[in-house]
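Quick entry between incubations.
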Amino acid sequence: RKEVEQDPGPFNVPEGATVAFNCTYSNSASQSFFWYRQDCRKEPKLLMSVYSSGNEDGRFTAQLNRASQYISLLIRDSKLSDSATYLCVVSVWGAGGTSYGKLTFGQGTILTVHP
Amino acid sequence: GAGVSQSPSNKVTEKGKDVELRCDPISGHTALYWYRQSLGQGLEFLIYFQGNSAPDKSGLPSDRFSAERTGGSVSTLTIQRTQQEDSAVYLCASSPALAGVGGNNIQYFGAGTRLSVL
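Done. Structure below.
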């Protein structure tokens, strides 16, 4: 079983649609969670961190369910520019509660927003 | 300011040759990471440097892979006797000094080196 699993998609949605991506992780020691975005043939870039209470950044909302080891990303009012691969990312903490550093990536979910 | 810089951006080599990939992290970032991304695959962790601590090499796929970080800044990833399965995009990332308890680890990526082994 992969440490971080995502539905690879692709998701094809019209502009203005709401789309949700889900992700599960297997390591219960995971403590930091992120969504990264990767455009075609480009490097990954941080979209948002994911906090236990859930957090929102404009049209993007992230949720974390530690009990189920599940992370989600909701995109409202999709734009053409949202077309990309969305990567679910987790990080394990080391001794002393400090962030360990190594990121574990899911394979990514491909989103295409069409006119 | 300048981001993470990697060179070369593209590298084509023959099977059996050695290659060196370079990464210049963001100035002041103490943590540096190497990942690789094969076609259609997710990112795979290779190695991690944090300050003067011993690196975490747990992700290196074989002893043909090695990396060093000189002076706490620039890093070089070396692949000896390259094989066709080494073909991938090699990504470097850096992050600031790790936050304390409860801190998040946000990594900033370079554009990568696309390695093709013929």
